[in-house]
């Protein structure tokens, strides 16, 4: 146990050092052999540190740290019910642009990795699509059916893609057994803004990763986006909660020494998100993924990903098309999403330093950037 503690302290010190060096810079890891095994690529909304021990610590310790079975099902239910009941008032939302920006990140991530996969017909599995663009799975299916109808009526040829919709808890159920064709393999498995829910317990994380891995073809990619535990844990705040006008994080675990699994916090974002989430400790994630044949090839922060993709043709076009950034100063007398007096200082400063005469820039309000980076 003492050795384990020493090891934990050592890791914690190392993380602290790295965190300070890497704050706001890219975290990138390359595998030695990414071509033969399956690969995992994760992007994070925030920066990371954690003080937990490695996965190899003894089992009884792990079990004590994680939550009871009853609590697990309560949390899963809360998350799913929450996403099924939120009203879709995106148009009125204070965080409309931030959500569009997140959609841009997801689209560009998928674009990057589908481009890596050559072949005639790409097969992809979207785990935890849930409301898929904020719709229930039924609405998602209806929307897809509508697309099919339009496509064949207007263009008179077979649909662009076929799809199957499955309602299941990815952390508890073997997905393969639910597919119409249980022998199907996918080129890409994606899990956007949802993988962290499985870190409620070791069993759930294993089930999720097993699902992802066994559905992938050799050489395929598992991609996703999660909040970055290091940043959450390293937020300098008194007490157990922090946030700003639009978001709030409150910890329900020992923040200075969170458990490997079940490190619970409550995340509230605007009037749309309000549910329990769990910290994902990167070394454990990497080790567990390896156990299921997934090799971590890249881990990147949103700010770095944005810098890398924003000037690519597709990135530029999509930023405009889906209004992933807000125009500052506002146009045609429209109201800004944030408070014009205090939320756009960065944009004002940027404009005063600019040499060109064009005043309009694309940005987000400061509180929204704070959620993303
Ligand atoms: C933040 S939303 C992201 C939805 C979608 N992936 C996207 O990016 O728009 C999280 C989604 O994960 C779903 N979810 C959470 N836990 C799940 C689980 N254990 N199994 C399946 N879906 C889950 C929720 O229902 C919710 O729709």
TrEMBL record:
Q: Where does the record place Basic and acidic residues bias?
A: 1-32, 60-73
Q: What is its EC number?
A: 2.1.1.56
The positions making up the signal sequence are none
Q: Name one GO molecular function term.
A: RNA binding
What are the start and end residues of every segment in region (Disordered)? Answer: 1-73
- Name the source's superkingdom: Eukaryota
Subcellular location per UniProt equals: Nucleus
Question: Does the keyword Acyltransferase belong to this entry?
Answer: no
Domain MRNA cap 0 methyltransferase: start-end pairs: 93-373
Stretches with biased composition (Low complexity): 49-59
Could you tell me the keywords of this UniProt record?
Answer: Methyltransferase, mRNA capping, mRNA processing, Nucleus, RNA-binding, S-adenosyl-L-methionine, Transferase
Provide GO CC annotations from the record.
nucleus
Q: Which Pfam families match?
A: mRNA_G-N7_MeTrfase
Per UniProt, the enzyme's principal EC class comes to transferase
What is the reaction catalyzed?
a 5'-end (5'-triphosphoguanosine)-ribonucleoside in mRNA + S-adenosyl-L-methionine = a 5'-end (N(7)-methyl 5'-triphosphoguanosine)-ribonucleoside in mRNA + S-adenosyl-L-homocysteine
Indicate the principal place this protein occupies in or around the cell: nucleus
| InterPro entries per the UniProt record, alphabetical | mRNA_G-N7_MeTrfase_dom, mRNA_G-N7_MeTrfase_euk, RG7MT1, SAM-dependent_MTases_sf
PANTHER family assigned: MRNA CAP GUANINE-N7 METHYLTRANSFERASE, MRNA GUANINE-7- METHYLTRANSFERASE
- What is the similarity comment for this entry? Belongs to the class I-like SAM-binding methyltransferase superfamily. mRNA cap 0 methyltransferase family.
User: What is the protein named?
Assistant: mRNA cap guanine-N(7) methyltransferase
């Amino acid at each position: 146990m003492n050795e384990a503690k020493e090891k934990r302290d050592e890791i914690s010190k190392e993380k602290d050092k790295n965190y300070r060096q890497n704050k706001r810079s890219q975290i990138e890891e390359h595998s030695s052999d990414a071509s033969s095994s399956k690969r995992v690529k994760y992007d994070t909304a925030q920066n990371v540190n954690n003080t937990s021990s490695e996965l190899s610590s003894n089992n009884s310790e792990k079990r004590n740290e994680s939550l009871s079975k009853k609590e697990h099902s309560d949390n899963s239910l809360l998350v799913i019910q929450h996403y099924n009941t939120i009203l879709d008032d995106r148009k009125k939302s204070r965080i409309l642009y931030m959500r569009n920006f997140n959609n841009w990140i997801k689209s560009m991530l998928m674009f990057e990795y589908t481009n890596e996969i050559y072949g005639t017909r790409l097969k992809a599995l979207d785990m935890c699509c849930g409301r898929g663009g904020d719709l229930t799975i039924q609405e998602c299916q209806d929307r897809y059916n509508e697309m099919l109808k339009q496509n064949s009526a207007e263009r008179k040829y077979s649909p662009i893609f076929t799809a199957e919709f499955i309602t299941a808890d990815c952390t508890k159920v073997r997905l393969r057994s639910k597919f119409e064709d249980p022998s199907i393999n996918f080129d890409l498995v994606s899990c956007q803004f949802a993988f962290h829910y499985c870190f409620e317990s070791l069993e759930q994380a294993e089930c999720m990763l097993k699902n992802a891995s066994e559905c992938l073809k050799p050489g395929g990619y598992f991609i996703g986006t999660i909040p970055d535990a290091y940043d959450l844990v390293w937020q300098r705040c008194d007490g157990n909660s922090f946030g700003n006008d639009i978001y709030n994080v409150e910890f329900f675990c020992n923040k200075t020494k969170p458990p490997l699994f079940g490190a619970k916090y409550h995340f509230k974002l605007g009037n749309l998100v309000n549910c329990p989430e769990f910290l994902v400790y990167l070394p454990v994630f990497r080790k567990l993924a390896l156990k299921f044949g997934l090799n971590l090839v890249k881990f990147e922060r949103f700010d770095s990903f944005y810098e890398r993709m924003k000037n690519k043709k597709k990135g530029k076009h999509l930023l405009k098309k889906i209004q992933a950034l807000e125009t500052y100063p506002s146009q045609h007398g429209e109201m800004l999403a944030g408070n014009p007096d205090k939320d756009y200082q960065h944009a004002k400063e940027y404009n005063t330093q600019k040499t060109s005469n064009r005043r309009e820039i694309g940005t987000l309000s400061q509180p929204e950037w704070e959620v993303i980076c």
